[in-house]
Amino acid sequence: MVEFWLAAGALLVVSALFVVTPLLRSRDNTDEQLRDELNKAIYKDRLAELEVESVEGIVQDKAELETDLKLALLDDVPASEQYGSTQKVSPIVIVVSLALLIFVSLFCYQRYGALDKVNQWQEVANQLPQLSQRLMSQDAEPLTDSEMRDLILALRTRLHHTPQDQQGWLLLGRIGLADRDIDTAIGAMKRAYRLSPDDEDIQLGYAQALMLSGDATDTEIAEGLLIGLAQQEYVDLRVISLLAFNAFEKQDFAGAVKYWTMMQQMIGPEDSRYPMLESSIRKARANMGESMADMVAVEIRVADDVPVNPNGVLVVSVHRADGSPMPVAAARYSVGAFPRTLVLDDGNSMMQGQNLSDLDAFIVRARIDSDGNVGTREGDWYGESAVTQKGDPVNLVISNQY
Predict the structure, then answer these.
(1) Could you tell me if residue 268 is inside a domain?
(2) Where are the TPR repeats (predicted)?
(3) Which residues are CB-neighbours of 58 under 8 A, at least 6 positions away?
(4) What are 302's strand-pairing partners?
């Protein structure tokens, strides 16, 4: 606000100089001088006419006429004390002019300017810490649409004064993503990425914004950033989720299944997002041309008297209908919570030359391995399904102990 008033004051001073400077400058009273110059011009013209008339014989006494002209010119010369006099402006006129200038300027700005908006803008800019804290706090009430706009305005104001603040640009980009303002999100994330291209949070945010643009070039850049992040030692779950989404949008359904399966392994079956991922995987496999008949959906329950070791491992295997101990397909999961539903497909096949989808009938076994060694069974709890036909759901209860 101080900068605004300083700029307004400077403009007012410049305007005052334009008004006062001409008033302070003394003005010569040149009316008599102009009359003298005019008389001289008339005198010279009349002499030229006499010369012509003398040559043509119209004038007989040329010398006498010239004398009369000179006497007439001398009679019209202004007095010396009046010649070259000056006029000065009264100080009262200057003061009144300045007062009028200030009054008119302030009145016009008050009437037609945006002083109220400037004051509101400054108030919003001062609220940036409080609005940012509310945005980040999980316990505070969510910001309203009006407060979100105020936060964006305040943040843009600060970034105008600190354009090298990459965290500020990152925050503005995240707000743009949350508000579905794609242009703001991409622009802010791009500025943050230019300032700090090695920051993983900024890379992730920039990739997320680019993927929402719908432009093929932006999507390729985003995919490159995500693949680089996926090769890090620690991989953020959001990176895998965006890769899965990107693969599904490109109709790379096998890639989508791969990434969603990775997410399942990262979050575990006890996570509330696990069933949603399972549904996404089934949808992707259906788009690949794999029917649900080629998959085995197993609902697993645990008897009430079975102690479940939360650090154990759940092993699920599919066997031929004759009960062969060698599994055709198998999968290993963390124990998680029960009941739960798991889906096995050809990707879980164990035997070369035979896929799970080749079986017309099968048996499913599930075992909770308590020591983490799937090769040992002593003391483990298990359950086995009845012979099930291809395409039918499977239900089993873990109630027996080796």
Answers:
(1) no
(2) 166-199
(3) none
(4) 398
pLDDT digit string, tens, across residues 34-48: 667 777 777 777 777
Helix (H, G, I), strand (E, B) or coil at 291: coil
Pick the last residue of a domain from 73, 88, 117. 117
The b/e string for 236-263 (b: 16+ C-beta within 10 A; e otherwise) is beebbbbbbbbbbeeebbebbbbbbbbb
Burial bucket for residue 319 (CB in 10 Å: 0-12, 13-18, 19+): buried
Give the burial string for 191-210 (b: 16+ CB within 10 Å, else e): bbbebbeebbebbbbbbbbb
> What spatial distance separates the first Cα and last Cα of the chain, rounded to whole Å?
79
- The tens digit of pLDDT for each residue in 300-311 reads 899 988 888 877
Q: What is the mean pLDDT of residues 51-77?
A: 69
Q: What does the block give as tokens for 346?
A: 């050809």
- CA dihedral for 270, 276, 280, 282, sign (positive or negative): positive
Pick the last residue of a domain from 232, 249, 266.
249
- Judge whether 127 and 150 are in contact, CB under 8 Å: yes
- CATH number of 176's domain: 1.25.40.10
351 in a structural domain: yes
Residue 210 pLDDT: 92
Q: Which domain holds residue 144?
A: 124-249
Sheet of strand 394-398: strand arrangement: 340-344, 296-302, 394-398
Query: In this structure, how many other beta carbons lie within 10 angstroms of the beta carbon of residue 305?
Result: 7
Q: Do 102 and 140 reside in the same domain of the chain?
A: no
Number of domains in the chain: 3
The answer on 167 and 231 residing in a single domain is yes
Is the pLDDT confidence value at 368 over 80?
Answer: yes
Residue 264 lies in a domain: no
Least confident window among 8-22, 227-241, 273-287:
8-22
Judge whether 246 and 219 are in contact, CB under 8 Å: yes
> Six-digit token pair at 106?
């302030």
pLDDT tens digits, 308-362: 887 788 889 999 999 888 899 998 887 777 777 777 888 788 887 788 888 889 9
The yes-or-no verdict on residue 150 having pLDDT over 90 is no
Cα dist from 282 to 25, 297, 309, whole Å: 90, 11, 29
Instruction: Please tell me the distance from the alpha carbon of residue 127 to that of residue 155, in angstroms, as a whole number.
Output: 10
